[in-house]
């Protein structure tokens, strides 16, 4: 017997609604993670392009292609790096559109089923302790006269 959610009708009970909501939130988090990963890659491409752009175009450089280090010239590598960066930026923009659609879908789902996220008492206490310890890693010595 198939559940109603599988046939496209309304979910049967609260547990199914909760599972669907958790699944949607997981998908949203995966999109966030992928966007972050691709933004870091695009940033690395920018750093490389900015570093090699002012150099002599006939100078040797090395590029990793499919796990193999290949010797090329800057003249050959720079356009490829810039193309890859543009491709990454295009994928990031598509993922951002998908992210916005998913956010709307989740908001509609929350409104439809009146879903509210509650923080437990331990979460609230953890947040306050994080705020207090946010300046960790900085050492200040006594002022010298």
From TrEMBL:
Keywords: Chaperone, Coiled coil. The keyword Chaperone applies. SUPFAM superfamilies: Prefoldin. One of its GO terms (molecular function) is unfolded protein binding. InterPro entries: PFD2 (IPR027235), PFD_beta-like (IPR002777), Prefoldin (IPR009053). The keyword Chaperone applies. Residues 120-145 are annotated as: Disordered. GO terms for cellular component: prefoldin complex. GO terms for biological process: protein folding; response to cold. Gene3D superfamilies: 1.10.287.370. Residues 120-133 have a biased composition (Basic and acidic residues). Residues 78-112 form a coiled coil. Belongs to the prefoldin subunit beta family. This is Prefoldin subunit 2.
């Amino acid at each position: 017997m198939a559940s109603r959610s599988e046939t496209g009708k309304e979910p049967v009970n609260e547990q199914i609604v909760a599972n669907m909501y958790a699944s949607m939130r997981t998908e949203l988090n995966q999109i966030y993670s992928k966007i972050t990963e691709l933004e870091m890659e695009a940033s690395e491409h920018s750093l490389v392009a900015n570093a090699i752009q002012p150099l002599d175009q006939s100078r040797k450089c090395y590029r990793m292609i499919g796990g193999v280090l290949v010797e090329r010239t800057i003249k050959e590598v720079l356009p490829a790096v810039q193309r890859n960066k543009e491709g990454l930026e295009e994928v990031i923009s598509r993922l951002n559109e998908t992210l916005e659609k998913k956010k709307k879908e989740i908001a509609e789902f929350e409104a439809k089923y009146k879903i509210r996220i509650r923080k437990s008492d331990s979460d609230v206490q953890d947040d306050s302790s994080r705020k207090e310890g946010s300046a960790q890693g900085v050492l200040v010595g006594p002022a010298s006269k």
